[in-house]
Amino acid sequence: MTYSGFAATALSVIALTASGAAAQSRDQVQVAGSSTVLPYATIVAELFGENFDFGSPVIESGGSSTGLRRFCEGVGENTIDVANSSREIRETEVAECAANGVTDIMEVRIGYDGIVFASAQSGNSFAFTPSDWFNALSAKVVRDGAVVDNTAANWSEVNPALADQEILAFVPGTRHGTREVFDEKVILQGCEDTGAMEVFTAEMGEEEAEAACMTLRTDGRSVDIDGDYTETLARIGSSPNGIGVFGLSFYENNTDTLQVATMGGVTPSTETIASGEYPVSRPLFIYVKKAHIGVIPGVKEFAEFFVSDAIAGPDGPLAAYGLVSDPELASVQQAVADEVTMQ
User: Fold this and answer.
1) Mean pLDDT of 170-181
2) What is the secondary structure of 235-296 as a DSSP string?
3) Are residues 259 and 140 located together in one domain of the fold?
4) Which of 37, 63, 168, 223 could staple 84 via S-S, CB 3.0–4.6 A?
5) Quick one: how far is CA 21 from the chain centroid?
6) DSSP assignment of 94-151, as one string?
7) Is 273 exposed, middle or buried (0-12, 13-18, 19+ CB in 10 A)?
């Protein structure tokens, strides 16, 4: 995809002073983290390099947890400047940052994305609920009022309205921010909706019950994907009965091979995510190391460029790729300009 047209728009809208005069051995912004945020960050980096004198930031993937761990390693030119994340930073990660001298963290919400459930275009269509996914993938389920091991083999066993197709799900590995949202908004929600949470709680206690709800099967029906969405797509290519968990934008850029399921009767789209109608959506973030502003050239300018109207607004290149523009984008922009840090 070519973004030169967007670059011209960005230049006419954004009045940033690009200066690389600061003296240090590293002169490129370094970014790592979420595979969901990766394509957006790559677009922004490309345009940033075309329009400013700092050069294109170096963007790496690896997952939200990996990016935040690297972000929290410390301050200095040998550490990254920005972490991409498809979830909010955890308190334990903030504590780890602080222990390593990373105390001023700017949390920048870049927009919203949805988690979708897609399968081979040539296969069966699906209309899911969170209950379906809990009953299909949780290691423990409730049958006749008792907690038992999950042995369901076909989707029709967990819901007669679903296709008589083997259960085979490719879900993000635990280092991915997408997995946390999947666990909480789909599996845990399904556990509550089915009433299984009450049974688990009575038997195990509240804390263990929640963990039990979100513990997935290890018998091959649920497969963790530690790579990015391209690996999930490849798995579906070799196992046509598989159903993958993707970000909306990845699905929208692969509709030639994938079909998407509804969730709770709602089809995922930019519109249904923006309205809040689609139940499995989440904010996306970049985390900026304030101590690097003014030391590593272009750090603040990159963050400002990322959330500018011309880039992250509803008519910008990120929206064209699938990002749902933040309705509170103006306040995000002001917070970046003021270098507001997490409290």
Assistant:
1) 88
2) HHHH-TT-EEEEEHHHHHT-TTTEEE-EETTB---HHHHHTT-SSSEEEEEEEEEGGGTTTS
3) yes
4) 37
5) 35
6) HHHHHHTT---EEEEEEEEEEEEEEEETTS---EE-HHHHHHHHBSEEEETTEEEE--
7) buried
CA dist., res. 281 & res. 222, Å (int): 21
Same domain, 220 and 260: yes
Is the predicted pLDDT of residue 164 greater than 70, yes or no?
yes
CB contact at 8 A, 322 and 37: no
Greatest CA span in the chain, whole angstroms? 70
User: What is the tally of structural domains in the chain?
Assistant: 2
Q: Is the distance from CB of 45 to CB of 56 less than 8 angstroms?
A: yes
Per-residue confidence (pLDDT) for residue 169, from 0 to 100: 98
Record the tokens describing residue 306, joined without a space.
Answer: 């990322």
State the Cα–Cα distance between residues 281 and 138, nearest whole angstrom: 21
Cα–Cα distance, 67 to 38 (Å, whole number): 11
Asked whether residue 200 falls in the same domain as residue 330, the answer is no
Question: Which of 59-98 are b and which e, b meaning 16 or more Cβ less than 10 Å from the residue's Cβ?
Answer: bebbbbbbbbbbbbeebeeebbbbbbbbbbbeeebbebbe
Q: What are phi and psi of 148, to 5 degrees?
A: -135, 165
**What residue type is 39 in one-letter code?**
P
* Interatomic CA distance for residues 141 and 220, integer angstroms: 17
* pLDDT tens by residue, 200-236: 999 999 989 999 999 999 999 999 999 889 999 999 9
| Tens of pLDDT, residues 91-122 | 999 999 999 999 999 999 999 988 999 999 99
- Could you tell me which residues are beta bridge partners of residue 84? 33, 286
Torsion, CA 93, CA 99, CA 100, CA 103, rounded to 10: 70
Residue-number span of the structural domain to which 13 is assigned: 4-113+283-337
Q: Answer yes or no: are the C-beta atoms of 145 and 201 closer than 8 Å.
A: no
CATH of the domain at 258: 3.40.190.10
